[in-house]
Specification:
Oligomer: single chain
CATH architecture of the largest domain: 2-Layer Sandwich
CATH topology of the largest domain: BirA Bifunctional Protein, domain 2
Strand content: 25-35%
Strand order of the largest sheet: 3-7-8-14-11-10-9-23
CATH superfamily of the largest domain: Bira Bifunctional Protein, Domain 2
Distance between the termini: 28 Å
Number of helices: 14
Helix content: 25-40%
Length: 479
């Protein structure tokens, strides 16, 4: 890893982000334009995210399955709005085995169509419902402007697809999974997301309603971090997903879909990172604590390493993900900078004096310099480290929440809104007209992010046109 400093965030946030992803060895550019290679450190982070999400999915009754990567073109054409929404992004296979295919095959941009076709085979009776399936996999969308983790041609994600007997059940599922995403982002990623409903122009192609969790990044831009869609009966009718109800009447099922991708890794980077590198939330960090032995002579080496191994064993025994940095070709200072770059929440330094005193030096990644440094006894170290990791997780969420709240404004008029969204979010009444929505986008490049769920009996005037409005929306520039 280079010892050159990162471009400061305030100087060029975009360049800071790009450099950080590469230098922390989360990912690298692939030979194919717009694709990325996820490196082991980045994949370990994704694995921890998968585990946290998968546990939540299974707790809510969902099971995992796998569906094909290739989808017949005719399937996408069955749902008009769906194919129109995705047609510019499709990658299409026309030749297989050296011969032209009778029907082109689309590399899945999402799986509603292929899964819908299978559900039509599997669902015959109300007894077959609900169907609650999730799949972990990759998809391809032919994006023109790409950025590692945030927007790539191929990316990894999970997509849930469910079928229900009633509209109410499907709507409840949509909101349940939005809640799962919010819980994951807040409690695992320490990202204070705002759940809400998307506008009609911003909803998923083919959905009746789309919901989202929106997060504010360190440059105040918004990032859509997970979506849950109520599909109504659109795909059920397109793919003939029908069932006999209890009165033996043939009905169409109600379906949902929901997905969260590696984009959340980008959210973690941009929410918590600083000019020294990543700051990873302990609950997801691949390495929660790194132990750095410090010694100068052969005599010191033996006693220090013995203590280091004992401390490592104690931490692992209580489930702390830790690593000993025993490299001899680099200095302790290089190691400190290296692990700061990689965002490890806690650094434990052990030298000869620490061995003599029965103590260790601790450095918190969330607090720079002396503020994050402390010396504590080796006795009971595992318990203290566990408590510190909990505190760091809490501290990151509190800091990100305070930053978000400090950059959300309620402008008094449209002129002020245009100014506010250049460096923050505007939370304003909106008449829900696509004309007003388009005007804001044209004038400011800001879009509607979501209408939060917890609005009751709200009445006001649209910030754009002055007409009556019953809901407020977040306007922000976004990734």
């Amino acid at each position: 890893m280079s010892e050159d400093k990162l471009t400061p965030r305030k100087e060029d946030f975009s360049e800071w982000y790009n450099q950080l992803v590469l230098r922390s060895e989360l990912a690298d550019y692939a030979p194919v334009r717009g694709c990325m290679v996820v490196r082991p450190y980045g994949w370990a982070l994704w694995e921890n995210m998968q585990a946290a999400l998968d546990r939540r999915f299974k707790e809510t009754g969902h099971v995992n399955a796998a569906f094909p990567l290739l989808i017949p073109m005719s399937f996408l054409e069955k749902e008009k709005e769906h194919v129109e929404g995705f047609s510019p992004e499709l990658a299409v296979v026309t030749i297989g085995g050296g011969e032209k295919l009778e029907e082109p095959l689309v590399i899945r941009p999402t799986s509603e169509t292929i899964i819908g076709s299978m559900y039509s085979k599997w669902i015959k009776s109300y007894r077959d419902l609900p169907v609650l399936i999730n799949q972990w996999g990759n998809v391809v969308r032919w994006e023109l402007r790409t950025r590692l983790f945030l927007r790539t041609l191929e990316f990894y994600w999970q997509e849930g697809h469910t079928a229900h007997a009633t509209e109410q059940e499907a709507r409840e599922e949509t909101m349940r999974m939005l809640g799962v995403y919010a819980d994951f982002a807040i409690n695992e990623g320490a990202i204070p997301v705002i759940p809400g409903v998307k506008s009609q122009s911003e909803k998923f192609a083919g959905a009746n309603m789309s919901t989202t969790i929106e997060a504010m990044m360190g440059d105040t831009r918004a990032l859509q971090s997970g979506t849950s869609h109520f599909l109504g009966q659109n795909f059920a009718k397109a793919f003939n997903i029908q069932f006999l109800d209890e009165s033996n009447t043939l009905k169409y099922a109600w379906t949902t879909s929901w997905g969260l991708s590696m984009r959340v890794i980008g959210a973690i980077i941009m929410t918590h990172g600083d000019d020294q590198g990543l700051i990873l939330p302990p609950r997801l960090a691949p390495i929660q604590a790194v132990i750095v032995p410090i010694f100068k002579s052969v005599a010191e080496t033996k006693t220090v390493i013995e203590t280091v191994k004992r401390v490592e064993a104690e931490l692992k025994a209580v489930g702390i993900r830790c690593k000993v940095d025993d490299r001899t070709e680099v200095t302790p200072g290089f190691k400190f900078n290296d692990w700061e770059m990689r965002g490890v929440p806690l650094r434990i330094e052990i030298g000869p004096k620490d061995v003599e005193k029965g103590s260790v030096a601790l450095a918190r990644r969330d607090k720079p310099g002396r503020e994050g440094k402390s010396f504590i006894p080796q006795a009971g170290l595992a318990g203290m480290v566990s408590n510190l990791l909990v505190d760091i997780q809490k501290s990151l969420l509190e800091r990100a929440t305070a930053f978000r709240d400090d950059h959300i404004f309620d402008p008094k008029d449209y002129t002020e809104l245009k100014d506010v969204v250049q460096n923050g979010w505007a939370y304003s009444y909106w008449c829900e007209s696509p004309i007003c929505e388009a005007k804001v986008k044209e004038d400011t490049k800001a879009t509607t992010r979501c209408m939060p769920l917890d609005q009751k009996d709200a009445h006001g005037k649209c910030i754009v046109c002055g007409e009556a409005a019953t809901r407020k929306v977040y306007f922000a520039r976004a990734y």
